Structure formats: C-alpha cells, structure tokens
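Continuing the batch. This is chain 6 of the set; chains 1 through 5 are on the previous pages. Same settings as before, nothing changed between runs. Recording input and output for traceability.
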Amino acid sequence: MKIMKSVDKKVGDTIYFKYKINLPKKVVEDSKFEGKELEVVFDNGRILIKKE
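Output for chain 6:
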C-alpha cells in the first residue's frame, strides 16, 4: 500500500491536496468501518485508523 497525493482544488495561487490510501477489501469488510466516521492518529511512527 502507499499513500497517494492528489490535487483537490486550486483557489487563486493556493493548491489544496487530498491524501488517499487504498485498503484491502477484506480488511474493510471485516472492520465494518465502511461509511463510518473515523479518526486518524499518528503515534510512534504508525498511522492508526480508529472509530470515533
């Protein structure tokens, strides 16, 4: 997996980006997080995705 950077919009001279990550289908289905609001935390060199 990798984190992908894509242009979201450009307003004047400012460019806004979104970061996307593709998750394995099985992981998403097993987590039952699809369609839920999630919180992302960077902790000790790891990116953690958790349910709020």
